[in-house]
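Comment thread on ticket #2218

A.B. wrote:
> Attaching the input chain for the structure job we discussed in standup.
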Amino acid sequence: MKNKQEIDIFNYTDYRTFLEDFYTHKKEQNHHFSYRSFGQKTGVAPSVLKDVITGRRNLTLSIMERYAAAMKLNKRESRYFEILVRFGNSKNNNEKNEAFIDMIRMRGKSGIKFLGIEHYDFFSKWYHSAIREMVTLPDFKEDPEWIAKTLNPPITPAQAKKALDLLLSIGILTRDDKGTLIQKDAIISSEYEMASSALRNFHSQMISLAGEAIENTPRQKREISSLTLGMSERFYERLKERIRIFKEEILNMIVEDKGDSDTIYQVNFQLFPLLSKSKNKDKKET
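C.D. wrote:
> Ran it. Output below, let me know if you need it in another format.
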């Protein structure tokens, strides 16, 4: 049986998943717990919680406050719960990005620098992010020729020089008191689901490089695996949430790694349908 500490609201980015896990956890602790008993405690119709969990209705801020009180959330947890509701109910990408940034800050990761559309050019080439990480290597050389041949696959010295100039001009890289190239921010990330053709192109390039790595990188130097799964739309949303959380865990692990970087790795996450929309529609109709 789960203990109380395992239900931590700060481990969630989807308020529906949080509420579902909360309900399941309470039911495991006390088989008398039900939608009806929770509804009596909150003064909200019992059907509301079930409808919110299943996605039939959104959670309003006023009902969220009643739920937070009934769940005995403290002030910080209640504030985070409110952000989850804003995030889940966002009507456009700007609202979702603002809520996502607030969410990250509440979870103690305010050190992340979020790149917006003004950093469009950063995502135009796969090697821009690689060169940004290369400056942390002990043997890094600010030499376009060295950078070009060290990258895998290699690029031209002219491309390396142009990349360095770009990273400096948009503030991704800067120089310390000795004039040495350093990262402006320890951790950077695109805004949540940022709509950008450059970002789509960046992901496409990285996926292509992963395919090439199957052939040109020794097995012991790579980890490539895949899963083909049948799933509901509800599970799909939960899986997306788990991927987001796992990505944050990796970033935290990197921050906590006090050793010098030895090399640069790319970690990809892909989740995409293998059936056309028409096939999915037919399946539902059947």
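A.B. wrote:
> Thanks. Noting for the ticket: The chain has two domains: 4-92, 114-256.
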